[in-house]
Design a protein that fits this description.
By secondary structure, this protein is an alpha/beta fold. It is 37% helix and 16% strand. Belongs to the aspartate/ornithine carbamoyltransferase superfamily. OTCase family.
Amino acid sequence: MIFALRNLSGRWLSLGIKCSVRSFGCGQVALGAAALKGRHLLSLKDFSGEEIKQFLWTAADLKMRIKQKGEILPLLQGKSIAMIFEKRSTRTRLSTETGFALLGGHPCFLTTQDIHLGVNESRKDTARVLSGMTDVILARVYKHSDLEQLAEDGTIPVVNGLSEMYHPIQILADYLTLQEHFGSLNGLTLSWIGDGNNVLNSFMMSAPKLGMHLNVATPKGFEPDADVTKVAKSLAGECGTKLFFTNDPVEAASGANALVTDTWVSMGQEDEKAERLKAFHGYQITMKTGKSAAPNWTFLHCLPRKPEEVDDEVFYSPRSLVFQEAENRKWTIMGAMVNILTDYSPLSNKPKF
């Protein structure tokens, strides 16, 4: 593709700059690390399979070089991040603060009690102020539209730390965990048993691009977003993967390599707790659920976990990867930040995805 601009007289001027066509589906083209620099990370639907693999490769490379080899990598020296948190957090806050600092950068933790976000100052003005003082914004918010507004009005990359629609940085950690455990992602079957929430939406927007099949069990009335489902079905068709929906947890677990769930009552849904617990009766993941899964099945949960979602026998078993998954939140957010803010290319061999 050749870029051209129109000058003041209306004539077209060729800039002679070639750009690879970026695909967000399965027509994947390896674009290299530079293709991610300066981009927003609001949802994995905006990234091709090869670009998602680049995030994961960078995370694995940093984990190997820093954790295993003990290297000091000041890749974000002189960089700062504004961390806006409307919702409380353990993993997102710690992974971002410690990871950004470990790479030589400066994290700034901001709650709605610390700044004027949307109260004494518009989100638009806040985006402009933060753009002048920091290099990237990570925001954990209620409304996904607030992230989109920050991205539109600011001049620096915005990373989704969680919204009601998507949780992309969690899914990157899940994929790195599965890749480490199984050696490859392609061909795996994931079984989601729980609420049709932001975590499931993120799986649906990305799993097909990595060659993974997805079985989804939700109670009636708690299905994933209709628009997300429509796009996910199209992706699965394009990528040649299976996307299956049911209301039966055991049916969804059939042949699965990973059983995955999340909280049934998210922050902001506390008033619905009694109704939700009733609707999700029978959805607890147990060893009995795993009997219909593949012999090598594993378990994932993004935490914090409640016993009604998964019993102790599964949660603390050797099949459970939840604490490896939690640690990988740090390495994947580090990988994402390095890709978004620098031209870093991993030194290790690319993992088999």
